[in-house]
Batch of 2 targets.
Target 1
Amino acid sequence: MAKHRGKGIAAIEYPTGMNQNGDPSQCWIKVKPDGRIDVFAGTADIGNGSKTIQAQIVAETIGVPYDWITYDNSNTDSSPVCTGTFASRATFVAGKAAEKAALQVKAKILEIAGKELEIDPADLEIIDGEVVAKGAPQTRMSISDVAAAATWGHGELITGTGAQLKPYAAIVDPETGRVDSPPHSAISYAACAAEVEVDDETGEVRVLRLQQCYDVGRAINPTQVEGQIEGGAMMGLGLGVLENCYPYYPSVEHRGGAFGSYLAPGMEEMPQIDTILIENPSQDGPYGAKGIGEMANNPQPPAIAAAVYDAIGVWITELPITPERVLRALEEKAAGKHEPRREGKKVVFDEELSVNTVSSGGIRFEVPA
Amino acid sequence: MKVVGARIPRYDGVAHVTGRTTYVDDVRVPGMLWAKALRSPHHHAAITKLDTRPAAELPGVHAVITWEDVPLLEYGHLSALGIPADEPLLAKDDVRYKGQPIALVAAESEELAAEAVERIEIEFEERPALLDVRQAFDPEAPKIHQWGNWYPHFEGGMDRRQIRKGDVAKAFEQADVIVQGVYRPAAIEHAPLETQVCLVVPEPNGRLTIYSCTQALYFSLGVVAAHLQVPLNKLKIVGGTTGGGFGGKVDTATETMTSLLAMKAGRPVKWRWTREEEFLCSSTRAPWHMEIADAVTKDGWILGRKMLTLHDSGAYARFSPYGLTKHSFHHTGAYTIPNLEFDGYVVFTNRVPTTAMRGFGVTSVSFAVETHMSRIADVLDLDPYEIRLRNANRIGDTSPNGIVYTDPSTVPTIQAIAEATGHELSAEFRTMTNEPRTGEWLPEHLVAQLGNPEEH
């Protein structure tokens, strides 16, 4: 009886935005008389940090400090359309709408400032909350003064709207699955290496370390994207070795109805996680960002499965890789029953799980030799 | 860049960590009633009797609703995309999963609402359940859905999602080795800390204010408006702060039913699911059944792939046809495989309907194709990093549905992990890039893969 260590790797890709598109997000912004900025969007923050990301994008785009931004996503009366926070779309799609709205606000600020300073707006820029003449930085006007002038002098509201929509790519060829245009907004990539320790007496798999690299396009907020990646890794770990609604699937018996009887990962399961970010910018995302929120729990299960094989020489392809499954697989291996069937050039694993074994004449998986 | 790229603290971080964020269940309004649901105790049964009068007659009960109270009983999650609906908001003639809502009560307290639910008179005639997707196609399988046991409404009236690319028969003929495997990731819970919860306040002007934990305010707005058959200005969804969703709160699980109760009672109504309801009655990530056979050369080129996917949708379709389509579009993972034959079915079973969850449709296929890739490397005694780099998608390669990859990062992400782990790559793999394939990286079987070079 011993503990065995093993390593495995997985590489994945994942689309940003709803599959086949057609998922708008919109934003509108107004400026208070002292230049402070109110952002309205319908994007729910589910813990993914989209409030922060959109506020950052607006502050950066206009050229004001982050703490000038108030963000309101609280209701459907004041906030415009956002399809929702799913499909790894909040940063990319809703963030792009915020960027577009902020560009309109910036243009309006420069227009008012141009009138006040009697300078062509094209010769003005915004730096740290101040409108500054290009090449003549002593000529300047704070955005607070610009907003006051707009409100009390020009009788104008500084506002901006933005909408991001990639139209619905409705046509999928039913025979071939071909589409005419990309069914996504961008694609992100990741690779993950897992190191595990498997106890061949108890069957327990412990994930010791995950080393992960994600192409995020652009890290709008590195702390938040690292948080997404590490939190996602824990969810992937749960998928890999712990969680299961139906412990005897396909049976529906013995479902866990409480946290005490459903095994979600906790802090004690947390391995060392190393995160490497690559910034290969997307073409259309705000500041080159891509969406990585969902894919963060995708590469760990296969990397863990490969590491378990490396450790104890058995492939477990039904998730999660529980102690029971490990011990059963080790027993089968000891009895010489775990080997794939070899026939000609075919190497056939997992035949006992196949429709070819379980279905009674309903469906078959035919593979040419 | 000063703000973008900066490690700025969360906008709502202080409120979260000091417990001062207002979630839906923190909102209390005067005169608020509490809801409880009568749920199916059976996996599959006909409803032969339903009498809610004993519940309605209980003092302190202000409203009871059944399917008869819903203006539009069936509205699908994907109805806006033209996909037909199959799931009644409240069960009508039959129940198809344990936990399916049949009737709701609004009463002065949760205890009283629960007592009233107990008084509802209901009788069932149990029917055989279908639970194994692999047996759904069998002639003797119980018939459990009005459309048959699998979803029949893909484009062109197809009963499956197909991908066909290149010449699979030739690929398998040319292969040195064919590796076959079966992959079955489990159903899992979203397990948010905040269970499904909703508060609906009927306003004096005839509008409804709906406090919702939805992940998708406008999607839920559309779903409620459709069921209620009212214009959007009759409803105001208040939300935007969700106590954990992970996909499970895209389903509009509580908002419509609570709205109907509030309208009928003329009082605010809150419905909050118990932890047990959240685990046992809320939708889950789908379990998937995937079979892969790859045609491979002995030096590790993947010439072709045959794949069969059975997506366990549970009792109704919800978002599953969308999830399966997305799954099919990504079934080659981060690699370029020129010859493909994919068949995927959305299969109905008598379990809680499955729905979107983080990585929807792709988490499953990532597990399958990556574990399969590791197996192929082992069967052929090849380096697991190098076989991935060899097949990695490159600029100009095309996806399963014919889209040209413009800037894939498979190569640099794998190289970065090789460096981080100290895994030594041979020079050719250490120096390769995602640039368009040439020379030895352009074997004959991939020539046809290249898109129009003008497009890159």
Target 2
Amino acid sequence: MKIIKTFILISLALMILSAEASCQAVNINKLKPLRLKMYAAEGLKWKNESAQNTSWNKITQTPDGRIWFCGGDHWGTDETVGNFDQADKYKRPWGFGNTAICSFDPVTEKVSFELELDRASAIYSNAETPGHGKIHGNIASDSRGILYFAGYMGMSYMHEYTRAFYPKSYAGGALIKYDPATKKSEYFGIPIPYGATVGLYYDEKRNILNGISPDRAKFWRVNLSTMELNRYESMARMSRLDDRVREMIMDKEGFCYFANDVGGLTKFNPDTQGITDIDIKLPGKLMDFRASVVSSKNIIYAISTDGFVWSFDPRTNKMEEYGHVIGMPDQGHYTPNIALDEEWGRLYFIAGNHGGNVAENALEILTVLDIRNKKFYWAGQVEGVEGCFGALVTKDHTVYFSCFGNFIQGEKVEKDQNGKPITRPYLVKYNPPENLDSLK
Amino acid sequence: MKSKYTWIPALILYAGLSTLSTYGQRAGKITRGAVTNNILISNGPEGPIQGGESAVTDMILIKNGWVYGSTRATWGAGNCHIFRTDGEKVEHILNVTSILAGQTSITDLCIGKGNILFACTSTYDEILDDAAAGYKGGHLFSFDPATGKHQDLGIIASGQGINCIAIDSVRGKIFGVTYPAGHLFSFNINTGKTQDFGEIMTPWRVKDLGRVSWRGVPKVLMLDDAGTVYFSTYYQKEINMTKQEIMIGGSSSYSTYSGGLIYRLASGDEQPVFTGVTIPTQQGMDSDPLYENGIASAIRAQDGGFWCGTINDGFLFKFNPSTSAVINKGKAFQYWNLKSLAYGGDGKLYMLGGRDEDNSWIMCYDPSVGSLDCLGWPDNTAQCSVICTDAKGRILIAENLRHSFIWVYEP
């Protein structure tokens, strides 16, 4: 009898806890504004002014502690952003779209410009061949601190799908390897001609770069030892989304995962090249993922394009759901960033970003998920940020977000010659409290 | 008179607007007409059509009002299927691999007497390329949609797949082309006898990005009322080098391909002959080794002859067999590979063009005024291989992906 009572009590407690977790929702009225330290990207100056205005990339930390992010000018064939006009595109060397890779030293809090993508990939960008106006995928690194990244065009979204279209043909997402110690870059070519690169992961064990293209979501990989390129089919397509293909996952063993058209995950075996569908259903209406992080124990944590957080264990094929990032499951809330603190058992997000379906009154909410208790905490609404696409946690539990947002001088938001607010790419720093109850 | 409740619709409108998505920064897709439905062919891990088994190879509208379709397995998947659709739903009909072991692709469908479907099979190029893989050969088979009965008509050539077929119901013959050997054959439905007319395309093996394939093997056979079969193929010729080109110890000639030549095999003939016409080609490109010059699609024209689409240039042309005339109508897009044709309910000829790397462009040709039109593509991530008209005159556009959709286009 006592055992039954204990069982009932435990069951009730679990029910209440899970009910509490699933019923959590952000109270917009109680959210406080949050001003975080923002470190602007360097480089890409033209006429003594930064041409940068955007960042859509994931970030990485190298063994020396430096964090790597970037800033793109977003210049494309259709538009020139900032205090510049169309003529500047012709005058500026490496003109039509370019991106600067930067490093941030957490000790000195200094940002350093490292290299430009167009120059590293020898793209003579011009009216017919726009350059890499941004990075829209991962800046990846290996255990020696070598970096890998690829390009993406600036404006002209339609161009993602029309590919080669004379006279406006983006050459394609060039693959670059960069060694910060020697400052030497190596150009590996373009895996999908005329197609950009979005997801990008380096499989160090096999010396293979894995990636996907946004147009038709083609999965490809390059063996850097043999320089063999293999292209696979459109595995990463997420057809419930209108057209947005941005993500893939690589786990610690080098297996790759894609959200598929039947609402589950498709798995790629890097050794056999076998492709299988895992029999699970991802949460939310869109049943996909827009940002992911893999733990040292090889557990995948991800957030869907409509804001549902979930985890997946590849050993057991078990999926766990954590609920909606702002507790509004009927409201899509675009959150393309996620960071994991394994020691403290937390996930971090800046929820509600430019580029997707969002609750307009709940933009840029710094969100903490206590994984152990499945409990969300909302630290506040980040000021000055418009989009955040990459995040990571350092060993000292500091959280860094790769964002773009207002260009603020003093307390004033700077505007361009047309009266539009100027934006800049930033690395944004958040020092979370150890005790999450202080966020209540 | 003002109602005291006029604020209610305004409140509802406000509430609706406040929850509207702010998403939608891209445009494109079909510009006229409408894509009214998209139907997933794949059933996912539970099957019967699993991931990698839904790439559509062909579709045919039959008299019972259903469109029957065939699939091939992709990227290591094991089964190919026959399904049917009415533009509202997809129903699985037959796992062909379960009855014809080792066949992973239904490469072509034809309709015969009494509404019986005839089809041919093949397998992965990697298996065809590996003699040790032990592929026995592609089958011909029939399927009766009314009874669900199927009949294996046997293997045509040992170790060879079948690329395409055409059926002569009057004379009870199926014509086909083996792959990759490129032999033209006929199969007598009544006697079960096969006749090999020999090689019509010398295997042109290409290994690109680690994957092998063979170029130039005819993809389409056209059959007229007299029982004559037409196809396009290459002619390989040796060109003598000039004095300046010859190197000591080197060869004195090089071989070149001349593609897009239309051949015919008349009923009763033993050997195909050149008709004297070639398909429309950008001159100078026909012998380029990167340039596959042939017919990608063909359909009987309602006003006589055949409408054809070319592989590389994507030209639409009319081939008139009785006069061996080719009339180039040009192209409605700047891309390649006009790979599928179908008449819509509005009498216009609809076309699907583009390689797998390109958008799946939908175009149309209005025979009444002779105008070509580019309509756009069904979806930004669509990768389509076949179009077909359904019983309502709509255009069904089918994909060739791991989890394929059918897009329903209403002109």
